[in-house]
Each structure stands twice: as C-alpha cells, then as structure tokens.
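Try it yourself: sequence plus adenosine monophosphate, in.
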Amino acid sequence: MPQALAPGSTIGILGGGQLGRMTALAAANLGYRCHVLTPERDSPAAQVAAAATVADYRDEAALDRFAASCQVVTFEFENVPFEAAARLASRVPVRPRPEILRVTQDRVAEKSFVNGCGIATTQWAAVRGPGEIAAAVQRIGLPAVLKTARMGYDGKGQIGLKARSAVDGDALWTALWGNAPRDAGSREAPVAILEAYVNFACEVSVIVARGLDGRMQAFPPAENVHRDHILWTSTVPARVSPLVLAQAERAARTIAERLDLVGLIAVEMFVGHDGRVLVNELAPRPHNSGHWTMDACRTSQFEQLVRAICGLPLGSVERHSDVVMTNLIGAEVDTWRAVLAEPDAKLHVYGKAEARPGRKMGHVNRLVPRESYAKSKLGDVDPAM
Ligand code: AMP
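Structure, out:
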C-alpha cells in the first residue's frame, strides 16, 4: 500500500458547494480536517470545515498559502481553472490530477477521450463558430442538441434543435451564448458541440473510485430522472438488464483507468431502447447521482473519495437498502418537516441561505431495506438471544 495520510492530516477542497460540505463531513468522521477554498462567502462547505479561505481561484498568493496548509488537495467543482489546480499540484498532491480537468472541462475533449477508449457516445461534431452550424447539422442530422463546450450545467448553455427546424447559424449561436454560464477569465475562443438527440429508454450513472494503488470499486449504477434539465431522482437498483449494468460498469472502470484517476469519477450514460449504452458526461468528483450511497451503502461516495485521495483502502460498496434519492430544489426544501416525519427517509439539507428556483437545497434518501440482506445478517444471530 502506498504511503497513507493519517487521520489528523488536512485535506484541501477547491469549491464550497454541497459536494464539498458532504466530503468535509465524511472526512471529519475519519478524523481529517478540511480547508475549503472558494470565492463564495458562508459557503455550504465552509460552514462544516475546519478552515476556509474566501478567495478567487486565480489569487496566486491565496493558492500558495492554501497549498502550504494542506497535505492533499481535491476539488468538488470541476470548473476550477486548470491553472489554479496545476499551481497547487507543484506544491502538494492534487487528486484527481489536474490534467483530468482538461479532459472533463471541455465536451469536445471529453467525447474525443471517451471514443478513444473504444466507448460509444452519441454522434457529435465540434462547432467553432456560427458558420459551422449548418455543416454540423448536415453531418449529425436533427433532432440535435447544441451545447457550449465549456461551463454548461443543469441545462445551461444548451439549445435543442427540433426535427425539420430551420437552421439559422447566427441566431442559434447568439441564443446559445446568451443562455450560457459565464466562463470568467477564460481566454479561449467560444467552442460548441452539436450532439445527435438520443431518444433514450433511461439514464444511468456509475461512480467509480480508484485508489493510489490502482484498485477500483464501482458503486451499483443509479437510474436517473431529470426534471427541467436538473437531476430529480436517482433510483437504485436501476431498472435495467444485467447486461446493461455490466456494460455501464465496464465503461466507467475503463474510463477511470485510462485517466489514471485517483479519486472518484461519475460517468453519466444514456441507455437506448435497444440496450445500447452511450456515455454522455464525466465528472471527476462526487456526484449528485451518488447521494443515495450516504444512507444505502456501507461506504458513501464522500467517504470513498477521502479514502482514495488519502491512500487508504477503499471501502465496501455493498448496498444494504434499495433507495430513491430525491433532490429538494428551490422551495421544496420547505417540506423538511414532513420528510422528517417519514420513518424510512433520511434528510440532508445544505445550509444555503436563499432557496432560489432551480437551486439544489438538499435531498432525501427514501430507503427500503433489502430482504435478502436483512435475512442473511439475521441468520448470523442466535434467535434465542
Ligand atoms: P448534460 O448537461 O450533457 O449532462 O445534459 C443534461 C441532461 O439533458 C441529460 O442528462 C439528458 O437528460 C439531457 N440531454 C443532454 N444531451 C442530450 C442528448 N444528446 N440527447 C438527449 N438528451 C440529452
């Protein structure tokens, strides 16, 4: 086993959102301290971390002080500038390694990488300006989805093109960037990607952890339903065939290995009506579709991340309950009282002050203990006791 960081060490987390919060809580359970760096004041992660720095990701002096205070650094937000992660990596181990951000921050690089692993995606074409849209539509066909190559999330920076719609390159280009999140400080020319629309049977995701020693553990695939482009529910077990489950897990493991990942990666996939699995997106960090692991698995995705980046043995991914994770979006978080009254529900609230529409405020895991698991465990106990 490579050198492990002992409890008491400090883990640096880039990003202050709920993923950082839940990572810091898991790290604290194992005896680690977390230092969060984020531009946001009173962030969800800083509220539960041992230390926090409020600074821009491009503030080099703040990055250097942060690096000096940590024994390892990870990120909970994959759009941190590559240069910031690379600067930190020259001073302290950054896991996953920053070069992985170069792949996953850019849909063109990401799809090229996935296809290069021999793994299918939907048909796609890079679009480097409004003049290239018509040719891309010719190649890919309609319906299709036009997406910004960088910074998109939760449907931001995406436009659907219906079948037989007229294609006005200039108008689409203007509309796309009008709907895109800001890529502050990026000096790169705007690039988009046109993807063939996938008429999928369902969406699944697999989260794989890979340790410093190269060993991997894949959580069982979750079946994901989106509402208004935002993840709504993740259900486990996913209602797909064993063949689809195996394909999904194999794709995720291959990707983790080919990236030489240390940490976690979430691989989101479409499952076709013919059972074909197409990779949609990668996220080299804990993922919303893995929140179910917090209450239904022996090890949560957050603990698994801490184990992986600290060089500890990975934990068991055994699932002891069936589960439906439901996000609480915007004002839905106001249902917390009713959720707490449900005996099989576990509530998680992220500490965000303002419940804006579309904002992820918390989630609920509704559990159904697995009969077979309960019986096998009860079988070990003397009923006379
Ligand atoms: P993304 O930002 O690429 O993860 O997309 C968010 C969600 O939009 C996906 O999880 C799908 O539900 C939907 N979506 C994205 N791309 C496509 C596509 N090419 N075909 C069909 N649905 C898509």
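One thing you can check immediately is this: Residues 297 and 318 are 6 Å apart (CA to CA).
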